[in-house]
Structures are given as C-alpha cells and as structure tokens.
Amino acid sequence: MNKKAAIIIVNWNSYNYTFQCINSINQTNNHEFDIIVVDNNSEDGSGIQLKEAFNNIVLIQSDKNTGFAGGNNLGIRYAIDHGYEYSFMLNNDTVVPQNFLSPLIEYMESHTGIGMIQPKIYFNHDRSLLWNGGSYYNHFLGLTYTSNHFFSFFKNIERIKKVDWVTGCAFLAKNSVLEEVGYFDEKFFMYYEDVDLSFRIKKAGHTLIYHPASVVYHEAGASLKKKVKTREGYLNPYVHYLNARNKIYFLRKHTAVYYLPGVIVFSFLHSVAFIGYFVARGRFSKLNSFLKGLKDGLFEKKTNLN
C-alpha cells in the first residue's frame, strides 16, 4: 500500500446515494486514496451491487448493522491494518467536487499537532446553503452547535480555524491519532459519536481544524428519512431516541462537575420544549421514542459509558 488515505463510506440499504457518492469521488483529480465501502448488513443487496458497479472499491461486508460508529470502525481498522496514513470518513449521502481532499492532507502535513480536519459542507439540494462551517460547544449549557446558513455570521466561515468538534459527515483523521485515543465509541451507534471522538482527541492534546478550501455537498439524514410525509413527519422516530439518549451519554462522559448546574437546567428545559412540540403536533411515536431515549440515557450504568 503506497496511497496516503482510505476514504471510508458506510452503506446501509442506500445504493443510489452511495453510488452517487463514489461516482463523484472517481471523477476527482486526486488519486492518492482508496475507497473503502463498509456495507452494514444491507437487506437490499446494495453492497454487492456497488462492488459490481465499481471495481476500484474495497467492499467490507458486516454481518450485522453496527450503526455509523461501528461501520466506520470496521473501515478504520482495515485502513490501519493496511498501512494507510489517513482515514477520511465520508457520509454516503454526500457528493464531492474536484480537489476536495488535497487541501486537507496538505494542511495536515504542513502543521503539527492536528488530530482531525474537516471541510466546509453545503447542502446538496441547494449548494448556496451552508450545512456546516465549523462546530462548537458551550460548556455552560452542554450545547453543541454549528455555523450554518442560519448562524454563519457568528463565525468566520472563510478562514481556517480551530473548532471544538468535527462533524462525522466528512473529516480527515491521522490513523496514528486514532490508534492512540481509540475509534468511535460504538455504544452511540449514531449521533454524538463524532463529538465524543473529537473531545477524546482534544483531551489527548491534538487540535481540530476547519478548512474552507475543501468543500463537500451533503443530502443530510437521507438514510433515516421517510419518502412520504406521515402524521409523524419525514424523520424516523428512532432518530429522536438516539439523539435524546446519546446527548445524555455524551454529557455524562464529558461534563465537568462545575458545569453541571447549568447543563442540567438547560437540558431539562430543552427536553420539556421537545415534549411540548411533539404533544402539540400529535407526534406520539416520536414522543415515546424521545422519552425512552431520555430514560435509557439517564439510567445506563456509568461504567458502560467509559
């Protein structure tokens, strides 16, 4: 193996999105990478179909769906075992333009102490709308947030900058750093696993960077959106379960004692607001999923979260 990077894409019953993603990568002018597709036990045969469509990919087939965290971990292990210097995690519902990877690798190699670096990310359906221009964290409230098309005026999105965490949608990591701090925590399954990994990498003394010269376009949440709107909306109720549970998992792992009062009050008010919204809209499946997520997050044994 003499290529620098492994691009890792997790597929789950999403042939069309993953096909578009790989096709866009293959049209770029940088070939210092291999494409690793992890099929998370798809039921539609899409993993095999992708291998038949693209003879340049490495296909790893999991015998169970281990979520975003577990699927990417399979790819990371492959990349490390085969000597790649970098792993680039890329959501399958993205497409990339020419030269999306080179700015990230070049910056990594010309600066020391960087653990992970992410591109600027736009929505794919409207490429003028910013999806992520850097991610931040309010310790007093336990609040994760990003610069996007609503809030980009708060942070300069056109300069290279340090960030509090990087999004799992698209980021480049040094494999030596991942070996040092560990991979994604698979207990999260999906959601907040990227924030958790970012915090562990920062705790080990490495810097997280946002680099706007690299651009990616993102569909956002494609694998868990319904095609037809129902009374419960488009979004699968399981998303609300995972978000509620995993936010609490994350806060229990990473909140210092002196921040607890503010974090507890804000989290309580935030949860009450969500409950009120679901009741007002009559979305009781989402309400039940959200409440179950709160319960599981609060009462999981602390020893299982380390």
TrEMBL record:
This enzyme's EC code(s): 2.4.1.289
GO molecular function terms noted in the UniProt entry: decaprenyl-N-acetyl-alpha-D-glucosaminyl-pyrophosphate:dTDP-alpha-L-rhamnose rhamnosyltransferase activity
Keyword Ribosomal protein listed: no
SUPFAM superfamilies with a match to the protein in the record: Nucleotide-diphospho-sugar transferases (SSF53448)
Record-linked InterPro entries: Glyco_trans_2-like, Nucleotide-diphossugar_trans
Residues annotated as transmembrane: 256-280
Keywords from the UniProt entry: Glycosyltransferase, Membrane, Transferase, Transmembrane, Transmembrane helix
Glycosyltransferase 2-like domain ranges (all copies): 7-181
Similarity comment: family membership: Belongs to the glycosyltransferase 2 family.
Protein name (Swiss-Prot/TrEMBL): N-acetylglucosaminyl-diphospho-decaprenol L-rhamnosyltransferase
Gene that this polypeptide is encoded by: wbbL_3
